[in-house]
Amino acid sequence: MGDHLIHLVVGAVITVTIVRGGNGPDKAVNSYLQALQNGEASKAMALSDPGVANDQRVLLTDQVYGKARKRIDAFEIVSTTVSEDHATVVADLHQDGRKQQTNFNLRKANPGLLDDHWKMESSPLGSLTVTSDTPVQTVLVNGQELNVGLSGSITGATSVSFPALPGEYTVELPSSEKYLTAPKSTTLVVIGGAQAPPAASLKVEASEALKSEVMAQVDAHLADCVKSTEAQPANCPLNNYSSSRYSRNFHWALTTKPKFSLSKDPYGSSPWRLRTQTPGKATVSYERDNSYGFGIAGWKPTTDTISVSMSAGVTLEGGKVKLTYSNY
User: Fold this and answer.
1) Domain, as residue range, for 108
2) 139 phi/psi in degrees, rounded to 5
3) From which domain of life does this come (predicted)?
4) How many domains does the chain have?
5) Which of 37, 173, 241, 242 has CB 3.0 to 4.6 Å from 177, enough for a Cys bridge?
6) Are 163 and 143 in contact (CB under 8 A)?
7) Do 98 and 7 belong to one domain?
8) For the domain that residue 66 is a member of, what is the CATH number?
9) Is the pLDDT of residue 110 over 80?
10) What ranges in 100-155 are assigned the alpha helix state H?
11) How far is CA 326 from the centre of its chain?
12) Shortest CA distance to 101 belongs to which of 228, 192, 237?
């Protein structure tokens, strides 16, 4: 009877030891790394909360990370060290030919008879920086729309950074940014974070839609200008310097439209500037008093030809194109 009881006790101890061993700290780390390998960001975050604000977790989602290429492709648990309620697990991580040894710290959370409930502390994260030299409101990261609100800069690019898990991220403009175009930018967040934070830099240019809208507004503006009966229509590139006292009945006609170019304006107050490449020509027909106030008025029909040049700052406000004109 006594021997049988001893065997039962020993067997129970062995069973408890085996079960507790199967729930050791390395199990939590293994689950975490497997989640990274599978692209399961939400599971990884549940196992090791990064402790960052919710609005900074935009890349830490299954939708973004599940589409990341070049994630961790293999890992091995190297060692486990337990000291009372704390443990350190060392693992080798492999990513796209790289190898990085990383320490993971854990603590017991409500330990029980069969399970010490090891909880991972926050694991270090990398970061992804998105830059643009032109104002951009939204981008796509691995196909998911992200509000970045980049303002651009007169002297260079502005940027925004977000915590990111190891992997490859592709940043591009969404279709909603119809007036802008930029090549896709792909960058890799590597394990270990020894390198400088990677940046996805968007080289933004005016889309054909923006060029077409700008020219449509310019055409409409010039059409309104030539309707004027003034010698110098306000905010228009039409100027006849005849004296208003001795000239009247002005009629404008645009005979040759100027040719324009649209380009970035890094030192101006607008991100884009419309410039005249080849001046146009306009005629103005009017009556002029050749007596110039001496004797009887002698009104004679006159026609002058002038050169037409203009420029405009181009901005996007609330998704709409706005031009601010100037005669230079």
Assistant:
1) 2-124
2) -135, 165
3) Bacteria
4) 3
5) 173
6) no
7) yes
8) 3.10.450.50
9) no
10) none
11) 31
12) 192
